[in-house]
Amino acid sequence: xxxxxxxxxxxxxxxxxxxxxxxxxxxxxxxxxxxxxxxxxxxxxxxxxxxxxxxxxxxxxxxxxxxxxxxxxxxxxxxxxxxxxxxxxxxxxxxxxxxxxxxxxxxxxxxxxxxxxxxxxxxxxxxxxxxxxxxxxxxxxxxxxxxxxxxxxxxxxxxxxxxxxxxxxxxxxxxxxxxxxxxxxxxxxxxxxxxxxxxxxxxxxxxxxxxxxxxxxxxxxxxxxxxxxxxxxxxxxxxxxxxxxxxxxxx
Length: 251
Prior knowledge:
alpha+beta, 9 helices, 11 strands
């Protein structure tokens, strides 16, 4: 999917929230958003202006299917809930620009999809129980990083049953949710979860949210949840897995 510079500029303002028709995204929020599509940026000192960063990241996506995926993610109605903004307003605004590039955003159920002017779908969200759509693959499974693949390889060498980055339904009857652990592992009849902690997917800033997620898994009887530093997971994957399995056996 290829769009013009004028459309890129308009799109950037919706991504950042500066157009005042969509939720505001801070610098760290922008990093998290674009990292879903293959970037591995870290927010910190020296970060450029939000609009410049958004435009540059959109330019990187221009010309391939990730552009359409990004626009569909931007128009996730759940991000507009409990805000003053309506997703339809953002859709109408973007369509005024996209029509000159030969595309249109249309609704498909509760989601949005991108079609060309002949109404042929360019991107429609794929329903997949694996929680991510990252580019890294190992044994026909998707991973966010080479570090996660190192952990997968270490588990594989031990013949362990594991589910990487798979979404599941959990929570009380009054509060059912989709959640996605990094590695759901079964060893000697016991179930545990291993997380690869660190930027950009499990930064310290999200610790409260992730501890709440841990409580949901404990609610359903997951006996052991352990988080390991990403650098250690990459450099000492075998030791990390061995330590996790020993602790799970004792839980």
